[in-house]
Amino acid sequence: MTKTDQAYAIIQLIRPVHRRLARAVETKLAGSGISVGMRAVMEILAVKGKSSVPEIARNLFLKRQQIQLLVNELEAKGYLERGPNPAHKRSPLFALTKDGLSEFERIRQTENMELEALVTPLSQAELASTEVVLRQLLEHFSAFEDDPDNLGSLE
Amino acid sequence: MTKTDQAYAIIQLIRPVHRRLARAVETKLAGSGISVGMRAVMEILAVKGKSSVPEIARNLFLKRQQIQLLVNELEAKGYLERGPNPAHKRSPLFALTKDGLSEFERIRQTENMELEALVTPLSQAELASTEVVLRQLLEHFSAFEDDPDNLGSLE
DNA sequence: GTCAACATGACAATACAATTGTCAAATAAG
DNA sequence: CTTATTTGACAATTGTATTGTCATGTTGAC
Fold first, then answer.
1. Helix (H) or strand (E) holding A46
2. How far apart are CA B64 and CA B81, in angstroms?
3. Chain A closest-CA separation from residue B39 CA (Å)
4. Between A87 and A40, where is the model more confident?
5. Predicted confidence (pLDDT) per residue in B39-91, tens digit
6. Is residue B155 pLDDT above 60, yes or no?
7. Backbone angles phi and psi of A109, in degrees to 5
8. A16 with B152: Cβ contact below 8 A
9. Is residue B87 a part of any domain in this protein?
10. How many folded domains does chain A comprise?
């Protein structure tokens, strides 16, 4: 089993894992009126604080147009509020409202319980290696991005 | 950094990695008239040999309806041919034609060259751990599958 | 052997994420 | 000052996957 073969096996797993993960998150979110994408936006705001739409897009490796739609929905639900952006008059900074934050924390809590069971049979070293490999994948295949909007920072 | 936090970081990477991977594969496939899904079906047939549509679906963790569409397209392109299925009169077994096989091998070859560069900075141990973790993710979140069609075997 | 449960092909409709395209206003860079 | 870039806003489109349905084939219980 060469390293190339191993990489190949990993790549084949990405699609099904992604799909099941998305479905699981959806299931957990069902009824809350929050989609997987909306949840991701809330995450960025919870971690990074106030951000403009294009900033969020870069963090999530998505187009700003996609984020715009999610932000609009979240704002309509009262989970986000806009504030002035000293750096750009037309591009407001969005932040979680009190409602948004508590909703997000509720979500995170149920997710964490789910994760406890998931990680039990896995070692810290395995998890650390996985993150390294996934980041390498992300970076390597960024070469295929034609749109600079999609070249998010990896910190 | 707890294991739960690590798992969380990994989960957040799955979506962007999946998207970039899909785009990279598409780019490589551009012009050949083969989509990512069609390529995945060819892969199964190359590895597992003759299979029925539902069998392929289980292998790829997808619904048979989805596979049916891909198989139809591949057959129309002359990359697949159907043969009798001793186990089921109405459900033929599909196999790669000579054309299909050579096309698939051509694809695999260019992919392998790409992978060489990808795996260079990664160790065998890291890659092995990643596969373990991804399989655990896949298995764990299979609990959210309501459709038995989607419960593919992990061998 | 008969009948009920299940698997499959075939086709249609839909949902959802993501992309592409476009234009005007704001900003940055030279 | 002039030009290029960034951004918001809106529209249209694509691609993957799901859901629903029906007729036919298959399997297993009895």
1. helix A36-48
2. 18
3. 11
4. A40
5. 999 999 999 999 999 999 999 999 999 999 999 999 999 999 999 988 888 88
6. no
7. -65, -45
8. yes
9. yes
10. 1
The per-residue pLDDT for B89 is 81
Do residue B20 and residue A152 have CB atoms under 8 angstroms apart?
no
**Residue A80 structural domain:** 3-150
DSSP states of A54-118: HHHHHHHT--HHHHHHHHHHHHHTTSEEEE--TT-TTSPEEEE-HHHHHHHHHHHHHHHHHHHHH
| A155 in any annotated domain | no
For residue A155, the model assigns a pLDDT of 54
Enumerate the residues of chain A whose CB falls inside 8 A of the CB of residue B130. 10, 126, 129-130, 133-134
Mean pLDDT estimate for chain B: 91
- Could you tell me the CA-to-CA distances from A107 to A31, A79, A81, A104, B3 in Å, in that order? 12, 13, 19, 5, 19
List all residues 6 or more positions away from B40 whose beta carbon is below 8 Å from its beta carbon: A12, A15, B60, B70
Encoded tokens for A18: 């992604």
For residue B140, being part of any structural domain is answered with yes
Looking at residue B100, its pLDDT comes to: 94
pLDDT digits (tens, 9 = 90+) for A6-19: 999 999 999 999 99
Which 3 state secondary structure label does DSSP give A17? helix
Q: Which residues of B touch A134 (CB under 8 A)?
A: 10, 13-14, 17, 130
Task: Answer for the pair A117, B140: CB distance below 8 angstroms, yes or no.
Answer: yes
B21 touches chain A (CB under 8 A): yes
How much of chain B exceeds pLDDT 90, in percent?
75
Check which CATH number belongs to the domain holding B117 and give it. Answer: 1.10.10.10
Burial B3-34 (b: 16+ CB within 10 A, else e): bbebbbbbbbbbbbbbbbbbbbbeebbeeeeb
